[in-house]
Write a structure and sequence with these properties.
Strand content: under 5%
Number of helices: 17
Helix content: over 70%
Radius of gyration: 24 Å
Low-confidence stretches: 1-13, 204-213
Number of strands: 2
Order of helices and strands: HHHHHHHHHHHHHHHHEEH
CATH topology of the largest domain: Growth Hormone, Chain: A
Oligomer: single chain
Distance between the termini: 41 Å
Structural class: mainly alpha
Strand order of the largest sheet: 1-2
CATH superfamily of the largest domain: MFS general substrate transporter like domains
CATH architecture of the largest domain: Up-down Bundle
Shape: globular
Mean pLDDT: 80
Number of domains: 2
Length: about 450
C-alpha cells in the first residue's frame, strides 16, 4: 500500500493533508450516533417506538461494529487503506441521509449503515497511523480521539436547537427530529472532499498483498488478547453509563435537565484526556502505570456515585476522563504492539470486534440487574468489579513489547526499542540490495552491448 504519486502533493504539505484527513474522518466516528440521544424521546413519540425498540437504536451500531470490524482489515488488504476509508465515509453519509427519511424502517436501516461505516473507520485509522506516522502513533491517536469527542459533543449539543430551528422555519418536508439528524451530514461531506486527493495519490496493492497472511494467529496470542480485553472492558463500562447515567441521576433526585446536562459533561470529559495525555504518551514508552491510573479513576468515579451522588459532577468528570483516556491508550496499543500496518489492522479488527460485542451486552446486563434488584447499587458494584479486572489487564496490555510472527508460526514479543533497531537495519539492507541489483543490471546491459 505504498504511494508513488507524491509529486502531485508537495512533500511538506502531504503529511499535513493526510493528518487533516485523518482528523476529519475521526469526526465521523461518534457524531452521527451521539446526536440521537437528546432527541430520542421525540423520535419514540413520533414513531410510536417501544422502550425496547428505542434501546435497539443504541445497540445496533455496537453490533455493527462487532460484526464488520474483522471484515475491515480484509477490505484494506484487497483495495488499500485510502479507498477503504473513503468507503467508510460514503457509508456514514448514506446512512445519515437514509436515517433522516422520517420512517421507522429508514431510521433503523440508516443507523445500521452508519454503524458499518464507523466500524471500518474505527479499525483502519490506527492502521493508517501505523503505516504513515509510526513514530507519532500515540500522539496522533490522542489528537484524533479528541476530535471524536469534540464532534460528538457538537452533535449532541446542537440536536435540540436544530430541531427547534426546523420548527421555527416551518420546515415540514421531514419530521423536525429527522432534520436535526440530517444536519450531521456536514461531517462526512467535508471529510470526503478533503480525502479525495488521497485516492489520486494511491497505488493499488501488489498482487500478493491481497493474499497476505490474515494474522489469524493473533486470536491465539496472549498479548493480542490483553489489548483486546483492555479495550473491551473500557467500552463495556463506558456504554453502560452512556445508556443509564441519566436514569441513575434522576432516581437520585436530579431533574431531567440536570441529568441531561451531566450526560453532556460525561461526553465532553471523555475528550479532555487527549489534551493531558498527548505530552505524556510521547515520553512514556511503558504505558502500564498510565493505563492502571485510568482504571483507578473509573473506580473512584463509580464509587463516588454510589456513596455521594450529590457530588455527581465530580464523579462524572472523573469517570469520563478515565474512559476517554482508556480508549486513547487502547487504540494506541494497537499501533505500539504491532510491527506493520497489516498486523495493526488485524489486531484493531480483533480488538474492536470483541470489544464492541462486550460493550453491547453492558447496558443489557446492567439494566437486567437493576430490574431484578429494583436498585442501582448491585449493578454499580458490578461495574466496580469490572474496573478491578480492567486495572489488572492494564498491567499487561500497557507493555511496550511488539508482537512478532516467527517462521514457525508462533508469535513472540520483543522490546519496542530493539524492534525499531531491527526495522532500521532491515531498511538499510533493503536499500543496499536495491543498489546492488541496479549495479548488476547495468553491468549486464554493458556486457550484452559488447557482445
Amino acid at each position: 500500500m505504498s504511494h508513488k504519486n507524491n509529486k502531485t502533493v508537495p512533500k511538506v504539505a502531504r503529511p499535513a493533508l493526510v493528518i487533516l484527513g485523518i482528523l476529519l474522518i475521526a469526526s465521523n466516528l461518534r457524531a452521527p450516533l451521539t446526536g440521537l440521544g437528546p432527541i430520542l424521546d421525540f423520535i419514540s413519540h413520533d414513531l410510536g417506538l417501544s422502550a425496547t425498540q428505542a434501546g435497539m437504536l443504541t445497540t445496533l451500531p455496537l453490533l455493527a461494529f462487532a460484526l464488520f470490524s474483522p471484515v475491515s482489515s480484509g477490505l484494506a488488504r484487497k483495495i488499500g487503506l485510502e479507498p477503504s476509508l473513503m468507503i467508510a465515509l460514503v457509508l456514514v453519509g448514506a446512512g445519515v441521509l437514509i436515517r433522516s427519511g422520517g420512517s421507522t424502517l429508514m431510521l433503523f436501516l440508516g443507523t445500521c449503515i452508519i454503524g458499518v461505516g464507523i466500524a471500518i473507520g474505527n479499525v483502519l485509522l490506527p492502521s493508517l497511523l501505523k503505516r504513515d506516522f509510526p513514530k507519532q502513533v500515540t500522539t496522533l491517536t490522542a489528537v484524533y480521539v479528541l476530535i471524536m469527542g469534540i464532534g460528538s459533543t457538537l452533535s449532541s449539543s446542537t440536536a435540540i436547537p436544530m430541531m427547534k430551528l426546523a420548527g421555527s422555519m416551518g420546515f415540514n418536508a421531514i419530521p423536525h427530529w429527522a432534520f436535526a439528524l440530517a444536519t450531521v451530514l456536514i461531517f462526512p461531506v467535508i471529510s470526503i472532499i478533503v480525502w479525495l486527493p488521497q485516492l489520486a495519490g494511491h497505488t493499488r496493492p501488489s498482487a500478493d498483498t491481497a493474499d497476505i497472511d490474515s494474522h489469524s494467529y493473533l486470536w491465539r496470542s496472549a498479548a493480542a488478547w490483553q489489548v483486546t480485553i483492555f479495550l473491551g472492558l473500557n467500552s463495556f463500562i463506558m456504554y453502560i453509563f452512556i445508556s443509564w447515567l441519566p436514569s441513575i441521576l434522576i432516581d437520585n433526585g436530579y431533574t431531567e435537565n440536570q441529568a441531561g446536562y451531566l450526560h453532556g459533561v460525561l461526553q465532553l470529559s471523555t475528550a479532555v484526556p487527549a489534551l493531558v495525555l498527548i505530552p505524556l504518551m510521547a515520553k512514556m514508552k511503558d504505558k502500564r502505570a498510565m493505563s492502571f491510573a485510568m482504571a483507578i479513576l473509573a473506580f473512584i468515579g463509580i464509587l463516588g456515585l454510589l456513596m455521594m451522588p450529590e457530588h455527581a459532577l465530580i464523579w462524572v468528570i472523573c469517570f469520563g476522563f478515565s474512559c476517554g483516556g482508556g480508549f486513547i491508550l487502547g487504540l494506541s496499543f494497537v499501533g505500539i504492539r504491532t510491527h506493520d500496518a497489516h498486523q495493526a489492522a488485524a489486531l484493531s479488527g480483533m480488538a474492536q470486534c470483541m470489544g464492541y460485542l462486550l460493550a453491547a451486552t453492558g447496558p443489557i446486563i446492567f439494566g437486567s440487574l437493576h430490574e431484578s434488584t429494583h436498585s442501582w447499587e448491585v449493578p454499580l458494584y458490578m461495574t466496580l468489579a469490572v474496573c478491578v479486572v480492567w486495572g489488572f489487564l492494564a498491567l499487561f496490555a500497557g507493555r511496550s513489547h511488539v508482537i512478532v510472527r516467527t517462521q514457525s508460526g508462533k508469535d513472540i514479543v520483543i522490546d519496542a526499542p530493539v524492534h525499531e533497531t531491527l526495522q532500521d537495519e532491515l531498511k538499510r539492507l533493503k536499500k543496499e540490495l536495491a543498489l546492488m541489483t541496479e549495479e548488476r543490471n547495468e553491468l549486464k546491459k554493458a556486457f550484452n552491448a559488447k557482445l
